Amino acid sequence: MSAMLDPRSLTVVVTGATSGIGAAAVRRFAAAGSRVVAMARRTDRLADLRAELGEAILPVELDVRDRDATLAAFAGLPAPFADYNVVFANAGLAVGLDPAQQASLDAWDTMVETNINGLLYTVRASLPAMIARKQGHVVLTGSLAGDFPYPGANVYGATKAFVKQFSLNLWADVAGTGVRVTNIEPGLVETEFSMVRFEGDKGRADKVYAGADPMTGADIAEQVFFCCTLPRHVNINRIQAMPSRQTFGNMAVRRD
Fold first, then answer.
1. Which of 8, 107, 136, 213: CA 20 to 30 A from 177?
2. Distance between terminal CA atoms of the chain?
């Protein structure tokens, strides 16, 4: 087998970098000697990451929903961070768990703007430079919800189905260019995800994970790290992972 890539050769851009899977990925790559561009909206948390991890981290305030700002953020990266060869388009969220007929249109818009538009802006802003350098890796954060429906996941699940298909179509476009594409599709992961979904209702969020021994952000970051350090002739298209207490649900039957 060919040697794994030296993580010190990687310059990694992470969006949604200040919590959950994103923050765990920043820490995992930085610990291995990679340079990391941490992009997120919350400047206080970006400052904390910089204080924790030092000069290997470049904090960049960014809301990926802003197309012009996203394009400018990638175009304006200073050396040596401008020579990124991994982009982890991780920013995303779920808002609400109401059935479609009761759901908030504002919540739907927020999920589409972040999970789809923000991801597209991130990929389009970063891809040409990696192709020109004939070296890169686009990693997307999908979800099992992109394959398996559940009540209340209406638009969230649909956005993640988009991510899955976009990742496959993107790979069809870039195969042979030196750029790889991977979609990471986790199941139950205990992060701030449910706190955001339930608008800060900690009791409701905690019930999602209670007794389930869920995965952590670090578990998923390790999967990202593995994919990105494989020899360059190997591409992992998709990774689906669940905690060992989670499995596929039975088909629901609505009875009178």
1. 8
2. 58
How large is the C-alpha radius of gyration of the chain? 18
Give me the mean pLDDT over the 11-19 stretch.
Answer: 96
CB 160 within 8 A of CB 142: yes
The burial class, CB within 10 Å (0-12 / 13-18 / 19+), for 63 is middle
**Eight-state DSSP code of residue 118:** I
CATH of 7-241, one of 3.40.50.720, 3.40.50.300, 3.90.226.10, 2.60.40.10: 3.40.50.720
For residue range 30-58, list pLDDT tens digits in order: 999 999 999 999 999 999 999 999 999 99
Measure the CA dihedral 189/195/199/203, to 10°: 120
Q: Which is catalytic among the residues 84, 121, 150, 156?
A: 156
Q: Cβ distance 204 to 194 under 8 Å?
A: yes
Kindly list the domain boundaries of the chain, sorted by start residue. Answer: 7-241
Residues present in the chain in total? 256
